[in-house]
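Section 4.2 – Deliverable D4.2 (structural model, holo form)

The reporting period included a commitment to supply a predicted holo structure for the target in complex with adenosine-5'-triphosphate. Inputs used:
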Amino acid sequence: MTEPLVQLEQVTVEFDGRPVVDRVSLKAGRGDIITIIGPNGAGKTTLIKAILGIQKVHQGKVSLATGLVIGYVPQQLLLEATLPLSVRRFMLLSGQPLDECEAALKRTGVHHLLDASVHHLSGGEKQRLLLARALARKPDLLVLDEPAQGVDINGQAALYQLIRELRDDLDCGVIMISHDLHLVMAATDKVICLNQHVCCSGYPADISQDPAFIDTFGHQVADSLAVYHHHHNHSHNLHGDVVSRTGAEGACNHDHH
Ligand SMILES: Nc1ncnc2c1ncn2[C@@H]1O[C@H](COP(=O)(O)OP(=O)(O)OP(=O)(O)O)[C@@H](O)[C@H]1O
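Output (structure tokens):
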């Protein structure tokens, strides 16, 4: 097996003696898209900060692959409103050469805004600009904290599709937080449901049936996600590996609705 890009083993983060992230383990490799879901205050951002190395871990271990380049997309672009700043200048502040910056802007569909002021961008344009800044680093791992915030519903679907395409282009891993369960269920490989500890994790169609998921999000949410269920000829074990039901190990014969 190839070396994971990031591996968390029993990671605990405490604030004022309270575990906000409680013994969380996860592993992400190239090609993975892992989405962290969970209610407000569940510790999702704290967990991501621990991966980025900007949050002290009280117990457990965060291991990153040697020389790992992380591209981080924060929740929002926070800038001093009085500071004049063009998209070009903002991108150059990343320290990447202009041609790399322009290529990244083209890839995320906002190159035409090169000379625009960042203060005048729409919510969706800002998110694509942040994604371009992360992309210009040619990351091995993209870490996104609610990338579709402030983006309308069509824009959200397009953004998730773009993230999948970038994963394919860069052959990188992706770890993101999302509150949009419908989009997550439709566009993610693996979901981790966090509520301080990992309530449940696995493939979207499977976890929405998990009693821990239903406890966390309620029956209404779980039922509304039923559209994404599909029939498998196999099950997944806790590590996400395929466990054959028919004897055809690894065979995948999904019947999607
Ligand atoms: N620096 C800090 N000091 C003290 N408490 C903190 C700190 N950062 C976060 N917390 C607390 O830790 C808990 C988890 O916060 P976190 O931002 O990780 O949650 P979240 O799952 O990302 O929430 P949301 O979905 O609302 O963004 C919250 O109760 C928050 O108040």
